[in-house]
Amino acid sequence: MVEYKETTMEQETSIFTEINKLGHEQVVFCHDEATGLKAIIAVHNTTLGPALGGTRMWHYTSDADAITDVLRLSRGMTFKAAVSGLNLGGGKAVIIGDAKTQKSEAFLRRFGKFVDSLNGKYITAEDVNMKTRDMEYVAMETKHVTGLPEYRGGGGDPSPVTAYGTYVGMKAAAKKAYGNDSLSGKKIGVQGVGQVGGYLVEKLAQEGAEIFITDINEERLEQIGKEHNARVVGMDEIYDLDLDIYAPCALGATLNDNTIPRLKCQVVAGAANNQLKDELTHGRMLIERGIVYAPDFVINAGGLINVYAEHLGAYKRELAYQQAENIYYTTLEILDRARHDGVTPQEAAMSYAQKRIDEIGKLKQTL
Ligand code: NAD
């Protein structure tokens, strides 16, 4: 069992430094002794609208890891909403704990009460280890929740739409790398075949890609491997394979000093949030190796598009898919801008998003 490290008061000072650096508006620490709930809600920016972002439940090994994750993820949501043209701000929540053993109705409803206490400034949804069923309990205590099942008038699991957006974003990146967007016959490695990765593999298989998959969940690996004729590879092996495309669909920071020099692919395009361990250094390292990187927050916005449609009311899945299709064109535009301006795709996407936030922020100040 991994030892859990609590953050000391001395380290708390650096939390404010971090919040200041990343530009968060508000960070809420939630604690409930009765249910054992420990959560952090981070509201990064609400210029464009309420901060919408999923809740991730993870067995973090320290407070510091959980804080770093929620701060980075919520900031990513601000840029994701802005680049996708949605009227939403960026926020995210993390629950510290074991999703297999700790979740209960009371635990999830207590979390819902904390979300409610923000009066709609933060709207929650699913993320890693949180399912639509969990959102139903959260929704018993707050209306500021999306990702509800279809029988509750919600949009259901957003993962298929996320996977679809990732797929079209991958095709756009392939077009830049190979001159056409066909994925047929391309060797594609998918790291993490959970909710999004699983649907992505399905799309890739339909297009005739040669698929390699890895995951820590062996049962799931075997199932997806059999269903879509994908080859199972080792967790570390994926970085050394002779791939055309690497699709990170598990957790963040897998593009780093250790992995990038090992990659032989021409494209990186996946659904995981915060894939670049260091946005600038690792974004540049990818360019130096001639790899086209489709920024994660541009191509994994399908889920956000889906829950935004639900938030607006009168949800229709076909319309969410249609809107997610625009990710293809946004990705092409970002990659063109990056090449034209001599910056990384990540930088190009962030300045595209920031420009929208600044312009709409000014617009809101006028009569
Ligand atoms: P998930 O929990 O269903 O899937 C994640 C998968 O990754 C699991 O199968 C897990 O076993 C596997 N995994 C964990 N650590 C791994 C490792 N070290 N190596 C290989 N596999 C590992 O989550 P998901 O909803 O599919 O989300 C996947 C990623 O996409 C996350 O980063 C999430 O934040 C991001 N994302 C998801 C959505 C969505 O709609 N679900 C939207 C946007 C972004």
Which helices and strands occur, and which strands form pairs?
Elements: H1 9-22, E1 26-32, E2 37-45, E3 51-52, E4 55-58, H2 63-83, E5 89-96, H3 105-116, E6 122-123, H4 132-139, H5 159-178, E7 187-191, H6 195-206, E8 210-214, H7 218-228, E9 231-232, E10 245-248, E11 267-268, H8 279-288, E12 292-293, H9 296-299, H10 302-312, H11 317-341, H12 345-365
Helix pairs in contact: 1-2, 2-12, 3-4, 5-6, 5-10, 5-11, 10-11, 11-12
The structure holds nicotinamide-adenine-dinucleotide.
Write up this protein.
With 367 residues, this protein is of the alpha/beta class. Helices cover 46% and strands 14% of the residues. It contains twelve helices and twelve strands. Strands 1, 2, 3, 4, 5 and 6 form a six-stranded mixed β-sheet that branches. Helix 2 (63-83) packs across helix 12 (345-365) and helix 5 packs across helix 6 (195-206). The chain is globular, with a radius of gyration of 20 Å. It starts with 8 loop residues before the first helix and ends with a helix. The mean pLDDT is 95. Nicotinamide-adenine-dinucleotide is lined by residues 127-129, 158-159, 162, 191-197, 214-217, 220, 235, 249-251, 271-273, 300, 303. The site of nicotinamide-adenine-dinucleotide has 27 residues, from helix 5 and helix 6.
Keywords:
alpha/beta, binds nicotinamide-adenine-dinucleotide, 367 residues
Short recap of the structure:
Helix content is 46%, strand content 14%.
